[in-house]
Design a protein that fits this description.
Elements (H helix, E strand, L loop, with lengths): L2 H18 L4 H14 L2 H14 L4 H17 L7 H18 L4 H20 L5 H16 L5 H20 L10
Length: 180
């Protein structure tokens, strides 16, 4: 069959599995990944939300829903212009993940990524991104302190410094105090 038929069959099988066992986390994850692969961010977010309604403490769903929201806001912004709202929801997802498991570096790094993107959007809108950049830097530091992957967090942290320095330079202020 073609891709649409395969997707419909997969969705049907996953939904039937959830009817039999509404606590089957793999089925929610399968649905979310199917919709994400199809580019339907809203349905992917809804699938993770359904899973979180059953198990509010499942950290991977918090992280993955946050990542889908972040990618939606960056890759294909919502048609209604609600990008900032989607980013705030992504930040809340990662904050919940950090609250549930503060030793998992993925939650800290994800929240830092969202705060960095929000800071970039603020700077592009003429606002000072420094408060968001400071929070992002703290989160990257926490991710690294919790044994984060290292190279990814360090690269993102370095990108943040470059953007922050550029903003300060463009604003006519000395960025040196921000570099610690």
């Amino acid at each position: 069959g073609d891709r649409k038929e395969d997707d419909a069959r997969a969705r049907d099988l996953l939904e039937r599995a959830l009817e039999r066992d509404p606590h089957l986390e793999e089925a929610y994850e399968g649905l979310a990944r199917l919709e994400f692969r199809r580019g339907d961010f809203e349905r992917a977010i809804a699938a993770y939300g359904r899973g979180l309604a059953v198990d509010k403490g499942y950290v991977p769903f918090c992280q993955e829903r946050g990542l889908v929201r972040l990618l939606w806001a960056v890759a294909r912004p919502p048609a209604d212009g609600g990008t900032e709202a989607v980013l705030k929801d992504a930040e809340a997802d990662f904050a919940r993940a950090v609250e549930l498991d503060p030793l998992d570096p993925a939650g800290w790094a994800g929240r830092a990524d969202v705060r960095t993107i929000r800071g970039l959007a603020a700077a592009m809108g003429g606002e000072d991104p420094s408060p968001l950049y400071r929070l992002a830097m703290e989160d990257y530091d926490r991710a690294l302190g919790q044994g984060g992957h290292g190279s990814q967090e360090l690269r993102h942290r370095g990108d943040l410094w470059v953007n922050w320095g550029k903003y300060n330079g463009d604003a006519g202020s000395d960025p040196t105090p921000e570099y610690r």
